[in-house]
Amino acid sequence: MTKKPTGIELFAGCGGLSTGFLDAGLHVAAGFELDARAVDAYNYNHDYRGSRGFIADLNLASGAELLERAGIMRADFVIGGPPCQPFSIAGKRQGKRDIRADLIGHFIRIVDELKPSAFMLENVPNLASIDSGEFLDDVKAELRALGYKVDHRVVLAADYGVPQNRKRLVVLGVKGKRTVRFPDATHGTAERPYLSSAEAIDDLPDAGEFGETGIFNHEPTMHSDDMIERLSALEPGKRERGSYHDRLHPERPSYTLRAGSGNFSPLRPVHYKHHRVITVRESARLQGFSDDFLWPDRIPRLQQYRQVGNAVPPPMAEAFARCLAEQMGWTLDKAGLAGDPSTRPPAHIYTDDERKALRTARLRGASLGKVALSAG
Q: Does 78 map to a domain?
């Protein structure tokens, strides 16, 4: 049995799953993702830890090709979250009739080709209700036919120390075991309550240029005067009726952060104290990313928000990694996979003025409010 396993992440995005597994001490050799900007962020934040991101069309790539590109002979575990839009409550509810649902089929195909000892598939909770649950039943049946003990559960990220009420469906599979275990909750009790929004972001200064704050990815969003006036009257934990913005409550976990797709940019939560939507850095904090996880200037800010919203919260991923390692008898090497983030090239290549000009050029109407939109 492999004591120090190596795995890969499929549909990796910027690598939230990889981050959590590396933080736990399990080596993720590579992450595969079609979006070049997400791969850029993946490499900036994982290459120094021994994990490399690759652009790959997982509709076409074979398991053997993935191993070759990752530079490994075997994948002991496969993790990933195939795009969830076909199953999202906010989507069209097309389920397996949507061609994108085939990406889950390709996850199964790659598991079949690589024959890892364990896998983790993450998706939206609504996956369990598509076709009255038949689709998920079919997915689990196919995986069981490959020789895995399989189970699924809808989990709450806040249970694992993520300051966000984010529910996700996780399918776990292990070989050679009678049962498959899910990690116990670490938070949500009187002794260890859920982390609140304020506990995650209250130590940050108000949003500003890097030269003003020294905080990466913490630039403000421009709002119209009308929007600022409305947000200033919005109470914590409430929704602004005109724009549908939700305001964070400082004593509760955040609302679920959403990613959006295509030209759709979801409304971001409003800070509980400042009259603006939260920054990328605040979003990352609420998703459980450390401040060492940076998005370089070359990645547009809208993409940064989307990558945060698409990611699996690293603390949740870390809890699952530790649980799988315990079940499989794997040795964790947390210190050996920490890496040194200071060895990376600078994340900022623009001046504050250049970065501000780019934000203005890419201004999105939803942040300005209906009045500004009608005037424009």
A: yes
Residue 224 is classified by DSSP as -
The reply to whether 1 falls in a domain is: no
pLDDT computed for residue 319 by the predictor: 98
Both 330 and 360 in one domain: the answer is no
Does residue 323 carry a catalytic annotation? no
Query: Which residues constitute the domain of residue 111?
Result: 6-189+307-343
pTM of the shown model: 0.92
C-beta separation of 293 from 339 below 8 A: no
> Mean pLDDT throughout 338-343?
97
Q: Does 66 fall in a domain? A: yes
Determine the angle formed by the axes of helices 63-70 and 102-114, rounding to 10 degrees. 70
* Tokens 């704050």 found at: 213
Q: Residue 301 falls within a domain, yes or no?
A: no
Are 125 and 10 members of one domain?
yes
The pLDDT of 56-78, averaged and rounded, is: 97
Adjacency order of strands within the sheet including 6-10: 52-55, 27-33, 6-10, 77-80, 118-123, 167-174, 149-156
Task: Give the span between the Cα atoms of 146 and 165, in whole angstroms.
Answer: 34
In single-letter form, the type of residue at position 268 comes to R
The answer to whether residues 280 and 313 belong to one domain is no
What's the mean pLDDT when you consider all of the chain?
91
- Asked if residue 257 and residue 181 are part of one domain, the reply reads no
Determine which one of 70, 75, 78, 84 is catalytic. 84
Shared domain check, 368 and 317: no
What one-character DSSP code corresponds to residue 222? P
Which tens digit of pLDDT belongs to each residue from 110-159? 999 999 999 999 999 998 988 888 889 999 999 999 999 999 999 999 99
Same domain membership, residue 363 and residue 336: no
Q: Over the stretch 311-333, which tens digit does the pLDDT of each residue have?
A: 999 999 999 999 999 999 999 99
- Number of domains the chain is built from: 2
What is the model's pLDDT at position 371? 41
State the angle between helix axes of 36-46 and 16-24 in degrees (0 to 180), rounded to the nearest 10: 20
